[in-house]
User: What shape does this take?
Amino acid sequence: MAAFCLRNSGMLLSRLFLSSGIEMDDDELARFVEHVDKDNNGIITFEEWRDFLLLYPHEATIENIYHYWERVYLVDIGEQAVIPEGISKHVHATKYLIAGGVAGAASRTATAPLDRLKVVLQVQTSRASIVPAVKSIWKEGGLFGFFRGNGINVFKVAPESAIKFYTYEMLKNVIGGNKEHQDIGTSGRLVAGGLAGAVAQTAIYPMDLVKTRLQTYACESGKVPNLGKLSKDILVQEGPRAFYRGLVPSLLGIIPYAGIDLAAYEKLKEMSKTYILHDSEPGPFVQLGCGTISGALGATCVYPLQVVRTRMQAQRYNSDAAYKGMSDVFRRTIKHEGFRGFYKGLFPNLLKVVPAASITYLVYETMKKSLDLG
Assistant: This one.
C-alpha cells in the first residue's frame, strides 16, 4: 500500500515496538507518528516513511528506529518539539539536581552567620545567651568567624538540596502513578517530602558532622584545624562509625521537617494561586512568603531533635562528659536544663531558617523556570 491510515499506522507500530521490548504510551506513539507524517494529513505515505529512514544507518531494526527518533526529536527546534520520555527523564534529572544545588548553596551562604550562632548556642550546656555568643564568635575570628565552616556547609548543602528536590519530584511522580503534574494531595506530599529529606540527609551526613565539629572546635592555641586534618583525626581516633554519630535523631527530625516544609510550601502556593492570585502564577514575593511560613513551621516542630543531633555530633570521643547515646542526651538535658534546653538557639535558628527557606524556594523556582521545568 502507498499509504497508511494514521490510526492503523499507530497500531502497527505499537505492535512492532512491543515485539522489540519497547513500551510506548499513546501520547508518545502519537508524537512518533506525527513526526513521520510531515504534511500532517493523518496519512503516512511511502515517501514520508522513506524520507524518515533516508539518513538512517543500514541496520534499520525497529529498536534502532526508536532510539534514532529519540536523538532526532531531542534537537528538534520546531514550535511543537517535545522531548520523548526515554530521554526527558535523564534531562529532567540533571536539571532538577542543578536547580536544587544552586538554591541550597545560595540560601546557605546568605544565612551562614546565623547558622554558626545557632550551633554555638545549641552545644552550650549552661544558660545560653545570644549577645555573649556573638561577642565570643567575633573575638575568636572577627567577621570571618561567622562564616567558619561555610565552605563545607555549601559543599554539603548543595548536593543535599539537589538530592532532596530531585528525589521529591521523582517520588511525587511515583505516588501519582508516574503522571506528571498529578495532584497527590497533602498526605502524598508529606510522604514524598519526608522520604526525600531522609535520602538527602543520609547521603551527606558525614559532611554535616565534620561541619559541626569545625564550627564548635576550640583549642588553646586558638587555631582551627583545616578540613582535611579534622576529617582524618575523626577517622583515626574515632573510627568510620563516628561520621554517622547522631544520624538517628537527625533522620527522626529531618523526615517530619522535610515533609512539613515541602508539603506546606506547595499547599500554601496552591492556596495563594487559587484564593489570592485567582489562578495566576505566584511571583517572587508570594514564593518568599510561602517559604517563610513553611520553613518556620517545620523547623519549630522538630527543633528538639536537632539539638540532640548537634550535641551528639559536637562531642569528642575522649571527653569525660561524652553522651552514651540519644536517650542519654534527652535524659541529661531534661535533668540539668529542663525542657527549655531543647529549644536553645531556636530564635537564631528561626532567623536563619526563615530567610534560608525563602531564598531556597525562590532560587529553586527561578532555576526551574530558566531550565524549562515549569
Summary: DSSP finds 14 helices and two strands in the chain. Strands lie at 3-5, 43-45. The radius of gyration is 27 Å.
